[in-house]
Amino acid sequence: MLLEKALWIIAFTVVLLTSEVYDKNDELLKACLPFTSVTGNGTTNKMIDLNENSEKIQDLKCNTHRINGMKGFDENVLKAEIVNKIEECEGLCNNQKECRAFRYLLKNRVCFVYNSKQHIEDDISESGFYVKRCVLCYMNITKNVKGCDDEIESVWEDVSSLEKCEDNCIKSDNCRAVHFDGERCFKFTDEVKPYEKTGIDFSRKICEQYTD
Ligand SMILES: *[C@@H]1O[C@H](CO)[C@@H](O)[C@H](O)[C@H]1NC(C)=O
Ligand SMILES: *[C@@H]1O[C@H](CO)[C@@H](O)[C@H](O)[C@H]1NC(C)=O
């Protein structure tokens, strides 16, 4: 009996904690993400560019992550629709920037899209509850430094600007940094410690995670 009570208190605290983090993340998301849509099946990490609305090259990747035995709160439902597959339900979530979680009921194919990832235990055993996680990446330039030549992973030839070089790095999942010599873009996939070199510009990818 006592143990049961203790477990309830723990569960409640966890929900409170996650909701607090969520609210903070939500502020962050609002502050730096002027995007219009996130597309694709999140589990495969589809990407969108935020170039249009920012002077910085940025990239947002979202994916979904299942939490077993949970559901969202009724008051947080943005949308409820009948869809044929869980992938369609995920699509509804990914296409809505306010979406933070979704739930799919196999039995009647009802899809719930939530504006919060707050959740409680589900009484329907076969429901699938997924939260959306996003990572925002951008490039940070340091002028007149370069990475070590023996750490170069590959080279993009005939690159016209540092911006194009950074864009290549943003679009390449395993790219951690680049340096640009005026026509070639050198890619690094490991943590690099750049050193001074006049005429070469270095740019490191910085990624911030918005998770629970
Ligand atoms: C996303 O796609 C993958 C691979 O096609 C699939 O296994 C997964 O079930 C999809 N996501 C969801 C939430 O169903
Ligand atoms: C960007 O790079 C500069 C060095 O050029 C560094 O001082 C700064 O902390 C970096 N910014 C971030 C957000 O890491």
Total helical segments: 3
- Which class do the helix and strand fractions yield? alpha+beta
Mean pLDDT, nearest integer?
77
* Computed Rg: 21 Å
Which spans have pLDDT < 50 for at least 5 consecutive residues?
1-54
General shape: elongated
Percent helix, as a range, is: 10-25%
| Ligands, deduplicated | 2-acetamido-2-deoxy-beta-D-glucopyranose
The assembly state of the depicted protein chains is: single chain
Order of helices and strands: HEEEEHEEEEEEHEEEE
Task: Report the span from N to C terminus.
Answer: 30 Å
Number of DSSP-assigned strands: 14
Largest sheet: 10 strands, antiparallel
Task: Estimate what percentage of residues fall within beta strands.
Answer: 35-45%
Domain Apple: 62-134, 137-207
InterPro entries: Pan_app
Protein name: Apple domain-containing protein
Pfam family, one: PAN_1
Task: Characterise the protein shown here.
- It is a single chain.
- By secondary structure, this protein is α+β, with helices and mostly antiparallel strands.
- Helix content is 24%, strand content 37%.
- It contains three helices and 14 strands.
- The strands form three sheets. Strands 1, 2, 4, 5, 6, 8, 10, 11, 12 and 14 form a ten-stranded antiparallel β-sheet that branches. It has a two-stranded antiparallel ribbon with strand order 3-7. Strands 9-13 form a two-stranded antiparallel ribbon.
- Strand 1 (47-49) and strand 2 (58-67) form a beta hairpin.
- It is elongated.
- 29% of the residues are buried.
- The structure holds 2-acetamido-2-deoxy-beta-D-glucopyranose (2 copies).
- Residues 62-134, 137-207 form the Apple domain.
- This is Apple domain-containing protein.
- Residues 1-23 form the signal peptide.
